[in-house]
């Protein structure tokens, strides 16, 4: 697809020494925030499998993990005998259901402490920071007053962490490592302290490592480590040398030790760091993303709190995971997604966020979280629950089928002739300067995306091959060179599109195209070659607006947030279904037969009741029942003549998605636009339509928080943040106008 050449990876990543087993996309995090039972294990894992998930990450939430935020958790002792008895049952059930199991390496987060057990009995393993002790004196102190945090630059502390966590899991199910058990997920392990602040990361191993790397004693630069470097070249150099040393120790002695253990036991090291979306946070939290993620078999990012969202974030930072995969030939990347997004986000928004990540090189989406229990205060959690308690859960089979299809490519094989120089930014002088630096970085990367230029991040030690354009976000973008490096040249395109040339897992070279617009858009690109579309699991939407040839190129109409995949045509098309055209519009008189109203009381449940009323003229049931969250069961009659029968039906809007039945036969499920359904089983005369519509839990969540949780003094920072997000969708229903569609008869 491109003339781009890359050199072999020079990075000592320690692998991958394992062949990753099975397709784990998409996955879901399972919060064990209560004591598990055999019945719960079977019921909930079956629900995940039936919703289309391929993998599950077992995520313990012990009773003593941040009780001021989470109130109640798993009461059985984490990492003790009863815990592993339940774990063994999970392994057996995952094997029976065909689910891959990914282990979570901590009881809560961040990873690396075994809930404080690493330091217990070994105080020398406690994390320490360097602080000032007078004008020219310095000393080290514990990183936190409880001594709970571990020194993640110390390999002996890491080996104790492995003995406490990883080796106990292995002892409980050794035969399933590399089979049912696919990998171990590490979540947000961080350095303690930050260079350029009053608390600088430190380890007893650091002075010797620093001298070995740089040829002089680290104590000589201590005075330069405690303030933003600003315009001082001397402070900038000193802080960079120190941060590089911290990164090296962190990568080698924590991630490297764990990766070696994982490879020796036939599983992968997976996970993400923290704060990936802000370039100014990297130095403060973990150091150098690329150098650390050289150790990962599956590098990832975190997408929480609407970091990527139509209203708030673009998502260019997800290219970090792609870049780590390319550097090391990794075949997968991941994103921990949707936690702290809020109950007002519809499946349309969830899919928009997912597509924005696939087109940035994320190949596996991991939804967070499925709560084992939402009873009592346990429902507060992070304000999010993707489980059968959420009305949108009924639409997940459509989402997961699309996500599995979209992520079926090899991130490590992505080629880019444009490299963006990456290095962690040192602390800045003021919050305003920090915000401006983040804004400028994002604007720089967004411009590359706007111009359809495939790019990736490159570390300072990487030498670009001949013909590669190396860019630095600190310098002006050479706009006169943009057309030379664009994958396609746009024609009369309307709207904002993102593209990713990639290689599908079957070896097909293709281009993913994402419409980053709420109102949809028209893609037009210049091309001399023949192009065709790679059909998604539900190919019906592509027949509404097929890729078609125009003078000088191709065009296709996109629905809002839609992702489509195109490839060069190598032979004459076969078995191509004809496009669908309008056979006329009509108004369907929907009757509300029954509702399932969500109630987030002490034990969340859907309360079913018959209604027997017409749907409001707008199609929004909440006009009739304000505050409604849940599922509608609608019915309508459709009269058809004796002529050719229409093949499909399209609604203007569904809030938030639904399943259609025609004369008792299910004909499709749609979780995102376009809202088009097959009309299988249609016959001349009268036809009975049934539409099950699932809405968001937004209004009931807001009611429960307002009327029950806050008066009882129950909330946390996650729920408070979510409450500040405007709900994206509170309506529930379907627009009454519908379009009948028939194949081209010409």
Please tag this protein with its features.
alpha/beta; single chain; eight-stranded parallel barrel; six-stranded antiparallel beta sheet; 746 residues; 33 strands
Overview of the structural elements:
Helices cover 24% and strands 25% of the residues. With 746 residues, it is an alpha/beta fold. The strands form eight sheets. An eight-stranded parallel barrel has the order 1-2-3-6-8-9-10-11, surrounded by five helices. A six-stranded antiparallel β-sheet has the order 24-23-25-31-28-29, with helices on one face. The protein has a four-stranded antiparallel β-sheet with strand order 15-16-21-18, with helices on one face. β4 (128-132) and β5 form a beta hairpin. The longest helix is centred in the first third of the chain and has 32 residues, at 233-264. Mean pLDDT is 94; it is low at 1-14.
Strand content: 25-35%
Mean pLDDT: 94
Question: Helicity, in percent?
Answer: 10-25%
| Main structural class | alpha/beta
Q: How many β-strands, per DSSP?
A: 33
Gyration radius, in Å: 27 Å
Main β-sheet: number of strands, strand sense, barrel status? 8 strands, parallel, barrel
Number of helices, where a helix is a run of at least 4 consecutive DSSP H or I residues: 17
Report how far apart the termini are: 35 Å
- Give the spatial strand order of the biggest sheet: 1-2-3-6-8-9-10-11
Uncertain ranges: 1-14
Shape: globular
Give the gist of this structure:
By secondary structure, the protein is of the alpha/beta class. Helix content is 24%, strand content 25%. The longest helix is centred in the N-terminal third of the chain and has 32 residues, at 233-264.
């Amino acid at each position: 697809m491109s003339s781009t050449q890359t050199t072999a990876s020079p990075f000592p990543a320690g692998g991958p020494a394992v062949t990753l087993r099975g397709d784990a996309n998409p996955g879901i995090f399972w919060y064990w925030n209560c004591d598990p039972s055999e019945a719960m294990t079977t019921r909930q894992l079956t629900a995940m499998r039936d919703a289309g998930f391929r993998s599950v990450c077992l995520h313990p939430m012990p009773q003593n993990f941040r009780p001021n935020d989470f109130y109640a958790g798993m009461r059985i002792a984490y990492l003790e005998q009863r815990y592993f008895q339940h774990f063994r049952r999970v392994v057996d059930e995952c094997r029976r259901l065909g689910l891959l199991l990914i282990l979570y390496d901590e009881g809560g987060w961040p990873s690396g402490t075994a809930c404080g057990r690493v330091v217990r009995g070994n105080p020398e393993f406690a994390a320490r920071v360097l602080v000032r002790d007078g004008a020219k004196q310095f000393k080290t102190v514990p990183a936190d007053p409880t001594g709970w945090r571990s020194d993640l630059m110390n390999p002996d502390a890491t080996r104790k962490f492995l003995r406490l966590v990883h080796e106990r899991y292995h002892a409980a199910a050794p035969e399933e490592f590399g089979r049912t058990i696919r990998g171990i997920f590490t979540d947000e392990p961080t350095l303690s302290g930050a260079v350029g602040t009053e608390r600088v990361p430190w380890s007893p191993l650091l002075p010797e490592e620093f001298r070995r790397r740089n040829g002089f004693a680290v104590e000589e630069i201590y005075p330069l480590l405690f303030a933003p470097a600003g315009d001082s070249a001397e402070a900038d150099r000193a802080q960079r040398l120190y941060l590089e040393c911290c990164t090296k120790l962190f990568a080698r002695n924590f991630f490297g030790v764990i990766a070696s253990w994982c490879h020796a036991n036939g599983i992968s090291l997976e996970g993400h760091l923290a704060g990936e979306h802000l370039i100014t946070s990297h130095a403060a939290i973990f150091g150098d993303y690329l150098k650390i993620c050289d150790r990962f078999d599956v590098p990832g990012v975190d997408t929480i709190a609407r970091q990527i969202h139509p209203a708030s974030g673009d998502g260019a930072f997800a290219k970090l995971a792609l870049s780590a995969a390319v550097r090391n030939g990794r075949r997968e990347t991941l994103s921990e997604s949707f936690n702290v997004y809020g109950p007002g986000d519809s499946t349309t928004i969830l899919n928009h966020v997912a597509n924005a990540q696939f087109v940035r090189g994320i190949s596996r989406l991991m939804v967070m979280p499925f709560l084992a229990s939402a009873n009592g205060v346990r429902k507060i959690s992070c304000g999010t629950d993707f489980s059968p308690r959420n009305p949108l859960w009924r639409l997940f089979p459509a989402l997961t089928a699309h996500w599995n299809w979209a992520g079926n490519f090899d991130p490590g094989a992505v080629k880019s002739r444009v490299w963006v120089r990456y290095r962690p930014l040192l602390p800045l002088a003021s919050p305003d300067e920090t915000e401006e630096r983040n804004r400028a970085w994002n604007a720089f990367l967004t411009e590359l995306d706007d111009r359809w230029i495939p790019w990736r991040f490159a570390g300072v030690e990487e030498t670009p091959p001949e013909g590669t354009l190396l860019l630095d976000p600190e310098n002006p973008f050479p706009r006169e060179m943009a057309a030379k490096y664009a994958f396609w040249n746009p024609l009369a395109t309307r709207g904002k599109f993102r593209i990713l040339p990639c290689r599908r897992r079957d070896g097909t070279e293709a281009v993913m195209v994402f419409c980053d617009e709420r109102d949809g858009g028209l893609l037009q690109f210049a091309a001399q070659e023949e192009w065709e579309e790679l059909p998604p699991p539900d190919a019906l939407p592509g027949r509404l607006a097929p890729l078609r040839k125009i003078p000088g190129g191709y065009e296709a109409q996109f629905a809002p947030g839609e992702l489509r995949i195109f490839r060069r045509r190598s032979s004459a098309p076969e078995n191509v279904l004809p496009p669908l055209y309008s056979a006329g519009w009509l108004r369907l008189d929907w009757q509300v037969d029954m509702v399932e109203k969500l109630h987030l009381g002490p034990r969340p449940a859907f309360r079913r009741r018959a209604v027997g009323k017409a749907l409001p003229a707008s199609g929004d049931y909440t006009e009739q029942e304000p505050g409604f969250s849940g599922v509608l069961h609608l019915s309508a009659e459709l009269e058809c003549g004796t002529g050719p029968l229409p093949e499909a039906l399209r609604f203007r809007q569904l809030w938030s998605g639904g399943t259609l039945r025609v004369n008792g036969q299910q004909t499709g499920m749609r979780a995102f636009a376009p809202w088009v359904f097959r009309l299988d089983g249609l016959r001349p005369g009268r036809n009975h339509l049934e539409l099950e519509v699932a809405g968001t839990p937004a209004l009931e969540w807001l009611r429960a928080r307002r009327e029950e949780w806050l008066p009882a003094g129950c909330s946390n920072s996650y729920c408070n943040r979510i409450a500040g997000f405007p709900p994206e969708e509170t309506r529930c229903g379907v627009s009454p106008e519908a379009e009948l569609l028939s194949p081209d008869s010409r």
